[in-house]
Amino acid sequence: MVCICFLVDQRRMKKNMKPVAATCSRCGCSAKVADMETSTRFCKIPFYWNSYKAIICTYCGATLKSYP
Ligand SMILES: [Zn+2]
Fold first, then answer.
1. CB 26 within 8 A of CB 49
2. How far is the CA of 49 from the centre of ligand 1 (A)?
3. How far is the CA of 43 from the centre of ligand 1 (A)?
4. Is the pTM of this model over 0.85?
5. Could you tell me the distance, in angstroms and rounded to a whole number, from the CA of residue 56 to the centre of ligand 1?
6. What secondary structure letter does DSSP report for 4?
7. Which of 2, 17, 19, 35 is the most exposed place for a label (fewest CB within 10 A)?
8. Are 22 and 1 in contact, with CB atoms under 8 Å apart?
């Protein structure tokens, strides 16, 4: 059963980044709002997708806020 862990991976993609009036709480850099899309893949075949909006830091990549 252990080998299943190696066959499942998750990809996270950022789309449509737009500037937003927010700063990162970790590094103080400017943040952007982006349409995020995650896909969970099993043996390289995507079987689950999830998309949401999130405010992310462009410098350190921290997710400051996410909207379902
Ligand atoms: Zn940051």
1. no
2. 26
3. 33
4. no
5. 8
6. H
7. 2
8. no
